[in-house]
């Protein structure tokens, strides 16, 4: 399957090329290689069988590289990943795949789907490359009864993850394996080698102390949640205005906000999946206290998701909130760590990255939005129609976080990204509306 393309530039030509022309040539060759590889790519466009293909490959090798990428990944990268896999205290399964439309929606579910096929405890990592940007989704499954830290909490504490290079696969995958090892047996997280870190570029980088201050602030107790939510929204609004003043390019007119019905369908699918997961957990005998807690938490989230869909069937924000809650309920009931949504758009992959947003606030974000923020830009975000003007006839699209938090628990909590209390807020909202 792996079609290797080798193109040699004649030696005399190579010597006379200026650096810029060499880069141009590299780009052209890459484009050519891509075109040559295209038939193979369309012949095996990703379908729901992708998890089956990866699981089959893992039967012979726990490091699986998609045939479409095989020619482009240096052996040194694979060697480093293998070394990290061997050093881990749990079995590690790693798959490297290109981003495809199928994965657009499924990346986040893939570790769960893959674990379902393999069935053994361990770390499941799916590394996805989009252009030359590598991201990874990972899930740690423990032997029944074993406790330890959540992988997500180790990741959130690991500030170095923010500076990992993403133009090749090893930095992020190796770090994920190290984080899972720490989550598993509490071993110290080693420092990231300098070669895996982005170079400091003074202007928007914070000092380590600043970052620690901010995370201490974000980590403030539950009692501070409400005040914190308000600070966040004030911060967000301020930033939004600044962006406007600097004449940020408005969204293209022909780019409508995400269709509400699409989110509604997804939310209802997830609610069904969460119901199944909760029912499975309910049937299991000899449940541990931890599993009982997980079940209760999953019920709470599932219940709030159902409430949102029942009480506001046509509302985009309610559907997105239901999607987030049902997703969390399904994961919790399956024994996986509950993850915060991407603050900017809760329909994105979960917020496995953390980014500085306004002066006082860090928010969870998906890898894509995180890379946008790190480039100093504002992600497009989940957009909603806002009515303004006489009789509300002037409709325009605005990011949801510019709406009034007083009116909506999803806005007030960033869909639970800012404060993980969306179920309670939904319950309070329901009482208020009646
Ligand atoms: Zn996002």
Description:
Keywords: Membrane, Signal, Transmembrane, Transmembrane helix. Residues 185-211 are annotated as: Disordered. Residues 1-45 form the signal peptide. The chain crosses the membrane at residues 216-236. The chain has 434 residues and is an alpha/beta fold. The protein has three domains: 11-43; 50-196, Roll (Diaminopimelate Epimerase, Chain A, domain 1); 230-433, no CATH class. Helices cover 49% and strands 11% of the residues. The chain has 16 helices and eight strands. The strands form three sheets. A four-stranded mixed beta sheet has the order 1-2-3-4, sandwiched between helices. The longest helix is centred in the N-terminal third of the chain and has 25 residues, at 19-43. The relative contact order is 0.08. The structure holds zinc ion. Zinc ion is lined by residues 342, 344-345, 348, 365-366, 368-369, 379.
> Can you tell me the residue ranges where pLDDT is under 50 for at least 5 consecutive residues?
1-17, 34-43, 201-256
Number of strands: 8
How would a textbook summarize the main sheet?
4 strands, mixed
How many structural domains are formed by the residues? 3
Secondary-structure-derived class: alpha/beta
Helix content: 40-55%
Tally of contiguous helical segments:
16
Q: Cα-atom Rg, whole angstroms?
A: 23 Å
Keywords: Membrane, Signal, Transmembrane, Transmembrane helix
Pick out its properties.
434 residues; alpha/beta; Diaminopimelate Epimerase, Chain A, domain 1; 3 domains; 4-stranded mixed sheet; two-stranded antiparallel ribbon; 8 strands; 49% helix; disordered N terminus; binds zinc ion
């Amino acid at each position: 399957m792996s079609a290797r393309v080798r193109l040699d530039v004649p030696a005399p030509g190579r010597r006379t090329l200026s650096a810029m022309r060499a880069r141009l040539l590299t780009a052209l060759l890459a484009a050519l290689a891509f075109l040559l590889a295209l038939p193979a790519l369309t012949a095996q466009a990703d379908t729901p069988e992708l998890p089956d293909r990866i699981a089959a490959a893992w039967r012979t090798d726990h490091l699986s590289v998609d045939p479409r990428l095989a020619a482009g990944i240096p052996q040194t990268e694979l060697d480093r990943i293998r070394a990290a896999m061997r050093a881990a205290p749990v079995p590690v399964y790693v798959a490297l795949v290109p981003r495809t439309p199928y994965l657009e929606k499924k990346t986040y579910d893939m570790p769960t789907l893959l674990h379902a096929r393999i069935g053994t405890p361990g770390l499941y990592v799916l590394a996805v490359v989009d252009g030359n940007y590598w991201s990874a989704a990972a899930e740690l499954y423990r032997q029944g009864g074993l406790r330890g830290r959540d992988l997500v909490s180790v990741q959130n504490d690991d500030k170095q993850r923010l500076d990992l290079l993403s133009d090749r696969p090893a930095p992020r995958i190796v770090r994920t394996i190290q984080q899972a090892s720490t989550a598993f047996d509490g071993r110290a997280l080693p420092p990231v080698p300098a070669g895996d870190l982005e170079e400091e570029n003074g202007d928007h980088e914070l000092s380590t102390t600043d970052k620690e201050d901010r995370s201490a602030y974000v980590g403030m107790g539950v009692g501070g949640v409400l005040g914190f939510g308000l600070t966040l929204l004030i911060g967000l609004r301020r930033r939004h205005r600044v962006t406007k003043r600097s004449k940020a390019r408005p969204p293209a007119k022909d780019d409508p906000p995400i269709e509400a019905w699409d989110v509604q369908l997804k939310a209802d699918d997830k609610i069904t999946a969460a119901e199944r997961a909760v029912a499975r957990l309910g049937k299991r005998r000899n449940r541990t206290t931890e599993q009982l807690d997980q079940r209760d938490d999953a019920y709470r989230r599932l219940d709030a998701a159902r409430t949102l869909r029942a009480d506001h069937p046509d509302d985009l924000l309610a559907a997105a909130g239901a999607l987030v809650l049902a997703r969390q309920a399904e994961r919790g009931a399956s024994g996986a760590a509950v993850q915060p949504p991407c603050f900017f758009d809760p329909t994105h992959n979960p917020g496995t990255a953390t980014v500085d947003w306004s002066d006082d606030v860090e928010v969870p974000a998906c890898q894509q939005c995180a890379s946008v923020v790190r480039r100093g830009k504002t992600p497009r975000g989940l957009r909603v129609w806002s009515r303004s003007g006489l009789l509300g006839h002037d409709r325009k699209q605005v990011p949801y976080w510019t709406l009034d938090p007083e009116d909506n628990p999803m806005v007030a909590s960033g869909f639970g990204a800012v404060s993980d209390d969306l179920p309670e807020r939904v319950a309070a909202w329901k009482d208020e509306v009646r």
